[in-house]
Amino acid sequence: MLIHKFGKIINMAYVLVLGSGLVPSYSAAKGAIVQLTKSMAIELAPHNIQVNAIAPGWIETDMTAPVRTLPLNDEILARTPAGRWGQPEELAGTAVYLASRASDFVTGTTIRVDGVMRSDNSPNVTQVEADPEVRSGKRQRSYPDGRLTRCLLKWRIPGHFRAG
Predict the structure, then answer these.
(1) What does residue 143 show for φ and ψ, rounded to 5 degrees?
(2) How many CB atoms within 10 Å of residue 46?
(3) N vs C: which end of the chain shows fewer Cβ within 10 Å?
(4) Could you tell me which of 114, 110, 98, 92 has the C-alpha nearest to residue 39?
């Protein structure tokens, strides 16, 4: 790509990069992909290489099959105005767009494909927001997304992520 001065890189992130009580390490890794996408976009933009990510919501795959049998399935459907799980082929249009010339001036972006999933009602965010110190702002940093801060505080290690 560098030699040809042209290219498209599409990373796969995850819509719940705010955090997940189910598999925190998975959410952390996918959140890192969002930041890697932004950093790569900055580095590669002078070479006419666009770097973007797709952040799917809950998609019906073999990996998510066990979740569809749990009570959590009802919660997922309740938080998704589309009222259903996404299908793998529904990610294709976004990938085609990001791989096409139509997206030549789009870089460093993460596009959500999630049926307008509302993460504001996720159990881990609700649990953290119930903490009176978080609600009052006593344990909150000034990040662009306050919910991210609250999730970080939930997983706080003593001596790290100190509230400023």
Answers:
(1) -95, 160
(2) 8
(3) C
(4) 110
129 within 8 A of 150, measured Cβ to Cβ: yes
Q: Which of 14, 26, 97, 143 is catalytic?
A: 26
- pTM score over 0.90: no
- Catalytic (active site) residue 26: yes
Indicate the residue type of 100. Answer: S
The tokens describing 14, both together, are: 């995850």
135: its two tokens: 């609600």
**What are the structural domains of the chain?**
7-117 (3.40.50.720), 122-164 (no CATH)
Mean pLDDT rounded to a whole number for the chain: 75
Evaluate if residue 18 carries a pLDDT over 80: no
At residue 78, the pLDDT reads: 86
pLDDT band, very low/low/confident/very high, at 81 (cuts 50, 70, 90): confident
Q: Helix (H, G, I), strand (E, B), or coil: what is residue 2?
A: coil
CA distance 52 to 8: 8
Residues facing 111 on adjacent strands: 54
pLDDT at position 147 is: 39
pLDDT in tens, 25-52: 887 888 899 999 999 999 999 999 999 9
CA distance 88 to 48: 29
